[in-house]
Design goal:
The chain has 442 residues and is an alpha+beta fold. The protein has three domains: 75 residues, no CATH class; 206 residues, Collagenase (Catalytic Domain); 134 residues, no CATH class. 31% of the residues lie in helices and 24% in strands. It has a six-stranded antiparallel beta barrel. It has a four-stranded antiparallel beta sheet with strand order 1-2-3-4. It has a four-stranded mixed beta sheet with strand order 5-6-8-7. β3 and β4 form a beta hairpin. The chain starts with 7 loop residues before the first helix and ends in a 6-residue tail after the last strand. Bound molecules: zinc ion.
Length: 442
Amino acid sequence: MRKKILSLALVLALFASMCINAGALMFINGQFAEKWDDNSYQFGVKKGNGEYDMTDVINAQGGIDWFRHANGGMDSWERVYDMPDRAAAERKVAAMKAELEARYNVTIKIERAEHPLYLIWTLEELEAGMQSIPAPLVNAVKDKLSPKLTIRLLTKENEWDFVSGVYYSSANRIDIIYDEEHTIVHEYGHMLHTKFLDKKYGAGKLESMWTAKNRGVSYGYGYGYYDAGVFVTDYAATSYREDFADSFAYFILYKDEVLERRPNSAVADKMNYMQELLCSTFSLDASVFSGAAQPEPQPPAGATASPTNDSLTCDGAAQNPTVYKIGGSNYFKIRDVAAMLDGTGKQFAVGYDGQLKSVTATTGQGYAKQPGDLAGAPAGGNKTAEISSDTIYVNGEKVDAEVYKIDGSNYFKLRDLGKALDFYVGWSQERGVYIETDKSYS
Ligand SMILES: [Zn+2]
């Protein structure tokens, strides 16, 4: 067979860390999207109901070759459902690109003739990389760049090409050839180095301060430097600028691990020094770089919410909630969900706690449908959705959820509510989004 087949264990391990949200393209995630020699693609796919994982193959024309149940044994290939159409995937690419450009004040140039499903994966990797850089640092940088940062996504030239990214300082452009989270962070490190740190400290002075941490070891090609605890990777050992960029990437992605595993080493010194340089250059508090305290980068204030009438059933019965789509995910009112679940094993009451200034949900109690509940697709076209700091307390416990306020009402992701209130949310091509109350959230 021409395709490599992923083992189930690998599939499950990769999916374990994924986040799934409802929507037409919700199951696309490129954790193991791979391009094969014949220009076809294999994608990691998970259905919204979370029941099983599959891999798909898309041929060079964007058509489907075959499907496999990842949990159905190696030979149980069958067609399970249709992939979303190409136009829908293209719209998703355009929306993701626009969203990332606005959030990070960058220009993204897609110069790859790839299937749009592959581009979705690429943009997700880019987003994951950018999100790993603490928002206060990104925000301190993003409007000060001249010219504005351009991120160009190029096709990998050939399989022997090991260059995954390049930073061009005069154009202020990062080319990404091979997508992985590490690539953008490394190139971003080159950008910070050239555009900010060299200017603050003087290029020559910074170089001598940095290389003084090398404990007498010189740069050069060769392996084994990493083991000596002088450089974060063997690649970092090749030159001062690569050392700096790779140290930045390690500082962002694995600082705590490096400090724990190599205390008192040169690499530990570099992690601490990197923090010092960034904090003083950008007036940041060191807590910005401590893993636990990293604030999530916020979507731009005033995201666009579009009314949607995607189908939704509860225990097989069609429902008519008011739903807005924001950034590809559907958002619901908690009272609509309470009205749908009333009378089922997953029913819950909705109240308001004046002291907590918060909506409360109490499981096991019924809910009396109010005027305005389950009123269907909202009129009035697109609205502006503001990130809401409101939350809900379920049985007295505060729930972590992404909440948007639209026209004064709070909207939640259905899966966040499913998780907090333990009802099952699934998705399939035939059924759309569905709730089942005889099952737990999974
Ligand atoms: Zn580099």
